[in-house]
Amino acid sequence: MFYVSIFFQYAAQYLKTRLTYRADLVVEILSDLLFQAVNLIFILVVFGHTTTLHGWSREEIIFIYGFFLVPYAIFTAFFNIWDFNDRYIVKGEMDRVLTRPVHSLLQIVIERMELESLFGVITGMAIMFYAGSRLGLEIHWYDPLVLLIMVIGGALIYAGIFITLASISFWSDSKTDLMPMMYNIGNYGRYPVDIYNRLIRFTLTWILPFAFVGVYPSAFFLGRTDWYVYAFLTPVMGLLFLTIAVVLWNQGVKHYRGAGN
Amino acid sequence: MGNSAVYLEMIRIRFLMMLAYRTNYYSGILIYSINIGAYYFLWQAIYGAQESIQGMDAAQMTTYVAVAWMARAFYFNNIDREIAQEIQEGKVAVEMIRPYHYLGVKTMQGLGEGLFRLLFFSLPGMVVIWLAFPITFSDNFAVWGFFFISILFSFIVNTQINLLTGMATFFLLYNTGLIRGKRVVIDLFSGLLLPISFYPLWAQEIMQFLPFQAISYIPSMIFTEAFTGTEIYQALGIQLFWAAVLIIPIQLMWVLAKRQLIVQGG
Amino acid sequence: MNVVEVEGLRKEFKSYSSRSGLAGAFRDLFTRNYQVLRAVNDISLHIKKGEMVGYIGENGAGKSTTIKMLTGILTPTAGRILVNGMNPHKEREKFVRTIGVVFGQRSQLWWDIAVQESFRLLKKVYKVSDDAYEAHMGEVIATLDIGPLLDKPVRKLSLGQRMRCELAAALIHNPPLLFLDEPTIGLDVLVKMKIREFLKEINRKYQTTILLTTHDLADIEALCERVVLLDEGKIIYDGRLDQLQKNWVEGKQIHFEFHHPVERHALIELSGGADVKWRQGERCNEWIAGIEGDEEAVSQLMSRVIQQHPISDVKVNQASTEEIIRNIYEEGLTHG
Ligand SMILES: Nc1ncnc2c1ncn2[C@@H]1O[C@H](COP(=O)(O)OP(=O)(O)OP(=O)(O)O)[C@@H](O)[C@H]1O
Ligand SMILES: [Mg+2]
Predict the structure, then answer these.
(1) Under the GO molecular function aspect, what terms does this record hold (chain C) (predicted)?
(2) Which residues of A touch B72 (CB under 8 A)?
(3) Count of domains in chain B?
């Protein structure tokens, strides 16, 4: 209850600040849309030169992309921590965070949220509906529920990976560009992972499990029964990776050195 | 100009800074390999049974992808974000009274960073990739020469665009959206993800009038020998053209920015 | 009951040093040199409720590091800490509700939003009821005179204005223990006075315990009966401020301002048998004599010097705190 009221307090504050800098807000929403369009264009251009990708049709690949956008939007809205090292460790903002009576990770999540990213949920749903209707997919009564679970699982996987990366900053004093580069790798989970060799496939499934934020859960809606097991592992992986990340984070906070003078 | 020593020093310092961030170095190599690997398999799947697409065969495409990413290591830099940050923190006002050109310094820092990645990153990286994937290197010495000239222009054009996006902070105050948008546009329209020749004709025509192809498409096409003969000179000409033209908006924006600074008092 | 109980507290920082030159930097890619720096070296400290303690020491002595450990920001390398009956790092979230912290070097408020919005947010974060907030903060705002600043965003405030707001923000939950790390840095005399008055006031009213670091000894003189002196991570003095004064020098200081340049050895010859330390002052031709002994010795020295060298001014006074501290920094406590 306490956290809920804190959340709304911050959210209200956030909206006030954002509306002060409206120009940037508009540009940011537009750049989000652009980002979403870019990947779609990539798919469309590629399928201008081929009809199937390892047995998957254009609409199926587009559907996977649409699904991906939903957990991704939730992730970017709340886990805007790509500059954690710079901002909180090097500049020492963590000092302030640690003097407040709210869990440090939660504080950072709510003070850095970017609610406008949630527009991506709408784009993603629209793309899924478009591709789904082209494919003639039926909607069952349980589909919305499954979707919700898959989306939450996917967002947690993203959160887990990025929190883990952020936690590294507590130990290593040097700056890294790891996080921006990780965004690229997230893209590869959106293609049928059996196109890759065993190493990359293994990585995308168990080490950086981005395949669970794309092709695996989508396989359920696309009726690819051979991947149902993976599909239903999505929420499990999400919880697992988030737990690992939070444990690492809590350990990391103990290693926080403060801003070097 | 007596300033060239200063600029050289900037390159050297940035070079040393990059060496100091060793986590960055190791993780960078790992991530670039994964990127190139994933794209390699993706393109294998796209080619499927097809011999060639748009006049490029699968082996050329693999080379294209590898070279595009390795060239990116050289021309890519974050000076737009750095400039934006320095403007927001009011550091630029201080830089203005220093005896050198702020934008020149930023460019040199980017160059130091790029040289570092080219030497310690792209060159060893290329060897690794050459061992892992079927990549064809040209045995024509001239191709290598043209390629290096071409990526120098890539660096110039990309940096110019970064300077412009960074300076936009003078007028926007908060600028993260624009910087993010620019990055996405460059990845797509520069030919990093897809050779420009793969796009539908109407799109190709639009892109001809944009500076982005000068960043990635041209050097990669030269390296894969998809451009030959006069095509190469034409392509280098386009790069030179953009490198020259972009100076105009940069100068314009800089003058306006200075005025803005005087009005706002930093 | 002690509010702060610290036993054998230690903090070590591992710092990497880079080799010089390009070849060195290249070697750093593979192996790096590092040193262990003991920023806080086995200190023990006990503070009772309602005390105001001045924590002083040179730059880099380890003051901020100590405060960060006491507030739960840093984990100690070794030692036992109990603050307000809790281990700061273990029960961080519960613990920080019972303290207030101000770092003079760094803002605790949100940069973009109005001061009162920050206050409102903190009120929620610390679960302060409306009534308690009204009653307590009304007074704080009035005393610190920040009413007119409340609707301005923090980034538009001057340093002194911001500092007063920071102080108010740290007190929203009326904590029984307050840590202030250089709260008066860069402030003008009037703001400093206001802050000192305010701190005295809350200490009197709520028995608030205050631990404060500063480089302005006037702060300490105005506020603290007790000082803790830190040097290279070790406590070298912990006791009453006036005691420090007494222990350090029994004697007096005589400031001479001569008409002409005077050599040190000429002055030393004039000292005769008395125990006199000569030091050049800041102004030109100014010399300061530190003399141990009674008034008799002082007047004898003065007359001897004045006979030999014409003066334009002369003053006799007790050594100031600043003087004492500076001597300790320069020479250590050995003379004590
Ligand atoms: N994060 C850190 N990493 C490495 N060394 C540190 C770090 N923080 C502090 N130090 C070192 O620990 C020592 C004590 O620093 P500290 O900040 O506690 O000094 P201080 O007494 O507060 O000094 P000042 O009066 O300048 O504020 C210094 O030598 C400093 O270089
Ligand atoms: Mg300090």
Answers:
(1) ATP binding; ATP hydrolysis activity
(2) none
(3) 1
φ/ψ (deg, to 5) at C56: -125, 165
Q: Which domain holds residue B202?
A: 3-265
Is the CB–ligand 1 distance for residue C186 below 6 Å? no
Question: ipTM of the predicted structure?
Answer: 0.84
> Using CB atoms, which chains have 3+ pairs under 8 A with A?
B, C
Phi, psi of A182 (to 5 degrees): -65, -30
Nearest CA in chain B to C21: B16
- Best of A87, A89, A100 to substitute, by most chain C Cβ atoms within 10 angstroms, is A100
| Separation in Å, CA C75 to CA B19, B253, C9, C57, C101 | 30, 49, 10, 22, 17
Instruction: Take residue B249 and report the two structure tokens written for it.
Output: 């908006």
Find the domain containing A64 and state its range.
2-255
Of residues A176 and C198, the one with the higher pLDDT is: C198
Number of domains in chain A: 1
Domain membership of residue A198 (yes or no) is: yes
Question: Measuring CA to CA, which residue among C81, C93, C56 is closest to residue C4?
Answer: C81
Helix crossing, C115-125 with C159-170: angle to 10°? 20
Of the candidates B140, B114, B155, the one whose C-alpha atom is nearest the C-alpha of residue B222 is B140
Domain assignment of residue A96, yes or no: yes
Q: Is there a contact between C151 and C163 (Cβ–Cβ < 8 Å)?
A: no
Q: Does the pLDDT value for residue C270 go beyond 60?
A: yes
Scanning every residue of chain C, which has its alpha carbon at the shortest distance from the alpha carbon of A107? C125
Contact in structure between C1 and C51 (CB atoms under 8 Å): no
Q: Among the atoms of ligand 1, which is closest to the Cα of residue C58?
A: 25
Nearest to C124 among A6, A103, A111 (CB): A6
Of the listed ranges A158-172, B105-119, C15-29, C89-103, the least confidently predicted one is C15-29
CATH 3.30.70.1570 domain range(s) in chain C: 250-318
Q: What is the pLDDT of residues A66-83, one digit of tens each?
A: 999 999 999 999 998 888
How confident is the model at residue C331, as a pLDDT? 66
Beta bridge partners of C317: C253
pLDDT at B88 over 90: no
Domain C2-245 -> CATH class: alpha beta
Q: Is C225 helix (H, G, I), strand (E, B) or coil?
A: coil
Model's pTM, two decimal places? Answer: 0.84
DSSP string, chain A: -HHHHHHHHHHHHHHHHHHHTHHHHHHHHHHHHHHHHHHHHHHHHHHTS-SEETTEEHHHHHHHHHHHHHHHHHHHHH---TTHIIIIIIS-HHHHHHTSSS-HHHHHHHHS--GGGGHHHHHHHHHHHHHHHHHTPPPPTTHHHHHHHHHHHHHHHHHHHHHHHHHHHHH--S---HHHHHHHHHGGGGS-GGGS-HHHHHIIIIIS-GGGGTHHHHHHHTT-GGGHHHHHHHHHHHHHHHHHHHHHHHHHHHH------
CATH class of C250-318: alpha beta
* Closest C-alpha residue for ligand 1 atom 8: A260
Whether residue A184 lies within 8 A of chain C, CB to CB, comes out as: no
| CA nearest neighbour of A245 among A108, A146, A117, A116 | A108
Which amino acid, residue B250? I
Residue B98 burial by CB count (10 A; 0-12/13-18/19+): exposed, middle or buried? exposed
Contact (Cβ atoms closer than 8 angstroms) between residue B63 and residue B136: yes
Q: Is the CB of C329 under 6 A from ligand 1?
A: no
Query: CA B259, CA B254: separation in Å to the nearest integer?
Result: 9
d(CA A100, CA A93): 12
